[in-house]
Design a protein that fits this description.
By secondary structure, the protein is an alpha/beta fold. Helices cover 46% and strands 15% of the residues. It folds into 5 domains: 1-99, Zinc finger, CHC2-typedomain (DNA Primase, Chain A, Alpha-Beta Complex); 101-233, DNA primase, catalytic core, N-terminal domain (DNA primase DNAg catalytic core, N-terminal domain, Alpha-Beta Complex); 240-351, Dna Topoisomerase Vi A Subunit, Chain: A, domain 2 (3-Layer(aba) Sandwich), CATH 3.40.1360.10; 380-471, no CATH class; 511-704, Rossmann fold, CATH 3.40.50. The protein has a 9-stranded mixed sheet with strand order 17-16-18-19-15-20-21-22-23, with helices on both faces. It has a 5-stranded antiparallel sheet with strand order 1-2-3-4-5. A 5-stranded mixed sheet has the order 11-10-12-13-14, with helices on both faces. Helix 1 (3-13) packs parallel to helix 4 (79-90) and helix 16 packs antiparallel against helix 17.
Length: 761
């Protein structure tokens, strides 16, 4: 895994206040105020998602240092040690075997430092005679000197001056030329330097704007903006580093539009840098939390066409897109802000209409002529294009909105229009399925020709067939009738009891859903899972229960089960090895275990299944046995997945999603163990956020129980001490009832038997 990806994950999770505790941090909106390490005045700051500490003490300080360099310097670490320290501070588990490529890191760091030094030059040059024209241009556009400072705008001088300055700073000419700062046109036809940063604020290069008139620029045969060589455009929305955690993203075209909007207090505004958005920009915004998008592209033909394409891309991801229409006479958001202030733009954004409604209006405007009443030809052309649009929609609610809006606009009754869309979607779904089967046939034939690897064939058929089935689904929204509601309510299976009196007053284990039992290592997570497994097997005599273990083998788990059933403090292994048979409690426990196992009610499976193999096995069991009570899995972080993923968190998201699909598909309760991260040090730390490293499991689960063993944490009982320990079980999430309630259970450590607390009973 590349160091860049690892650092992205680390910086995303890093609590800057905790990492910079020695600088007395205070959160102030989107930045953290700090004591400056240099001048010791309380004028330094770092953005909440930033990676650079700066001091604002005018003329007297000018301190600026990266978070990496600060941690490295204060703790006297090498690069590898700094990586480990930042990972520890963020609670991120470094991938096993991953080490820092020292040479590559130094090369990247040198380039980053060189660019930052160049930015300092560009900012200073803006205020001398060379930059006067650019400064005047910015002021005419409504930027104050403080605005210019806040967004790091600058004047880029001719290449010779850049080389001279950077050489004086100790950089070799080879590194300067490799930085992309000497791109043709820089400091000549183009002079307004706009720094381009990635999502964590790392400087990637410069976007340089020409301030020439359109007529002058046309003579140069160059575009309005130039980009330094090596700058990757289209990976991230510009200005995303200032809006990393915003769920709703406002997308504009121009870089200065986004910067001015941010300066005037508008949250979530980013620039596509063009009248189109790229799939990479969209995917990265989604990856870092964006769920809906307001398009406010330029008020011209290119902007309208770009809005159309952007909506199709957003809808293909199953996300919501909205369109904000600028008032007539204003070309772009920046122009509107300068003329009427930020409130005018906010007013437009508040009136943004759903993308589907905008698209229907757009269809009508494309196919209708001057008359208000559509001709039959125009109406049919509109419907035909709407049918093609419906192919791109993945959200069934979008499909419904499209048909409803079209029905109302064209004044065609819904019962006449809807069947046309349904038939079209069925036809397209069938075509997709046929294409999918042909692709599957070709790939299977190739594998057979190459030697017939059965494992690869199994994986190919499992993954491909599921994909083909999904292609064949025609998503239609149907009203949920009262009769259907009553029938579903009557047939709904009741949740399972845990076997613990106080806990059963608050919860039941939900059907067709995931339940999480989460705890720190050695706090009793597996023990509680085993006790629940045995409680349910004993209570529900007409059900089968399956325990999939990724930690301990079947012999160890069976031994624990018999100990728990016996409630007897004895060396059970020695008892069995010596062929003893005199102890009544032990013999009774052995008999019960034998009855459970031989009748097929209790199953313990110890196999290192990959997630696909695990879900296939559960599917098989579900089809074979109609009387399964529940599936237990110990535990999610131990489950492996085939394929390549950039982070373990993404792997766990996929694993979690597959387990949830299996619970729904097979209509089974799945009770899953999970491990808390290092944040949980006391009972007060029990929270859903401590499960974040386990993918989306805390979101996918219906019920989450957090477990804390204070006696173990305080070391008041040793592992082999038979003394009873108190276990706190906190309901962290409960979609079907009460949450944030706690129950105390008792653990007999020697036999791992968990019972109701005698204090509560």
């Amino acid at each position: 895994m590349e160091i860049k990806q690892i650092l992205e994950e680390i910086y995303l999770r890093l609590n800057r206040e905790e990492a910079l505790r020695d600088l007395e941090p205070t959160l102030k909106g989107d930045y953290i105020e700090l004591v400056c390490p240099s001048c010791k005045k309380r004028r330094a700051f770092i953005y909440k998602n930033g990676i650079t500490i700066k001091c604002n003490r005018t003329n007297d300080c000018g301190y600026k240092q990266s978070l990496w360099d600060y941690i490295q310097g204060t703790k006297k670490l090498d690069n590898q040690g700094t990586l480990r320290e930042l990972a520890k501070l963020s609670g991120y588990n470094l991938p096993e075997g991953d080490t820092l490529n020292e040479a590559k890191y130094i090369e990247e760091k040198t380039r980053e430092d060189l660019l930052e030094k160049a930015l300092s030059l560009f900012k200073s040059k803006l205020y001398d005679k060379d930059g006067a024209q650019v400064l005047e241009y910015l002021k005419k556009r409504g930027y104050s000197e403080q605005d210019i400072t806040d967004i790091d705008l600058g004047f880029i001088p001719p290449p010779a001056e850049i080389i001279k300055y950077l050489k004086a700073q100790g950089y070799k000419e080879e590194a300067i030329r490799g930085s992309g700062l000497l791109t043709s046109g820089f400091g000549e036809t183009h002079s307004l330097a706009i720094p381009s940063r990635d999502f964590i604020g790392k400087l990637q290069g410069f976007i340089v704007r020409s301030i020439l008139t359109e007529e002058e620029l046309k003579k140069t045969e160059k575009p309005k903006y130039l980009y330094n060589a090596g700058l990757k455009r289209g990976d991230y929305f510009f200005n995303i580093d200032r809006n990393l955690r915003d769920k709703s993203i406002i997308i504009v075209e121009g870089y200065l539009d986004a910067l001015l909007g941010t300066l005037r207090g508008l949250e979530g505004i980013v620039s596509a840098g063009a009248n189109v958005i790229t799939e990479n920009q969209l995917n990265n915004a989604i990856k870092y939390g964006a769920t809906s998008f307001i398009l406010a592209l330029d008020n011209d033909k290119a902007g309208t066409e770009g809005t159309e394409r952007a909506l199709r891309l957003i809808q293909s991801k199953g996300l919501k897109g909205y369109v904000s229409q600028l008032p007539e006479g204003y070309k772009d958001p920046e122009e509107l802000i300068r003329a009427k202030g930020i409130d005018a733009l906010n007013d437009c954004l508040s009136k943004a209409e759903p993308g589907i409604k905008w698209q229907v209006k757009r269809l009508l405007s494309k196919h209708s002529k001057q008359s208000k009443q559509l001709t039959d030809i125009e109406r049919d052309a509109t419907i035909s294009e709407a049918l093609r649009l419906s192919e791109t929609l993945t959200d069934p609610l979008d499909s419904k909105d499209l048909i409803d809006t079209l029905s109302g606009t064209l004044e065609i009754p819904l019962n006449l229009l809807a069947p046309k869309f349904e038939d079209y979607q069925k036809q397209k779904a069938r075509e997709k399925q046929l294409r999918g089967y042909r692709e599957l046939q070709d790939k299977a034939n190739k594998l057979l020709t190459d030697g017939g690897d059965l494992e690869k064939l199994d994986n190919l058929f499992r993954d491909y067939l599921q994909s083909i089935k999904e292609q064949g689904i025609v998503r239609q929204i149907q009203p949920y009738s009262l009769e259907a509601f009553i029938n579903d309510t009557k047939n709904k299976k009741p949740g399972l009891n845990t076997g613990y009196k106080e806990l059963d007053k608050l919860i039941t284990i939900p059907q067709e859903a995931i339940t999480i039992i989460a705890g720190r290592p050695s706090h009793g997570k597996t023990t509680l899972l085993l006790n629940l497994f045995l409680n349910m097997t004993g209570t529900y005599k007409d059900k089968r229960f399956f325990f999939f273990s990724y930690e301990e083998n079947t012999q160890k788990l069976a031994l624990k089960c018999i100990k728990i059933l016996s409630n007897k403090e004895i060396d059970l292994e020695l008892y069995i090895k010596n062929n003893n048979s005199k102890d009544k409690e032990i013999e009774g426990a052995k008999k019960r275990y034998s009855e459970y196992a031989s009748s097929g009610r209790l199953w313990i499976i110890y196999e290192p299944y990959y997630i696909g193999e695990l879900t296939d096995t559960i599917d098989f069991l579900s089809k074979r046995y109609s009387d399964i009570g529940a599936i237990f899995i110990d535990y999610i972080q131990k489950i492996k997945i085939k394929g390549s993923y950039s982070t373990r968190q993404l792997e766990l998201q996929k694993i979690s999603a597959e387990i949830l699909e299996t619970a729904n598909r097979d209509k089974l309760p799945i009770i899953l163990g999970a491990q808390f991260n290092r944040e949980v040090k006391t009972e007060k730390d029990l929270s859903l956020s401590a499960l974040r490293e386990a993918g989306d499991i805390e979101q996918d689960a219906n019920l989450v129980l957090g477990l804390f063993n204070k006696d173990f944490e305080d070391n008041t009982t040793s592992r082999d001490n038979p003394h009873t320990a108190k276990l706190t079980v906190k309901i962290l999430k409960n979609r079907d009832g009460q949450a944030n309630k706690e129950v105390t259970l008792e653990l007999k450590r020697a036999i791992q038997k968990i019972s109701d607390s005698t204090e509560e009973c």
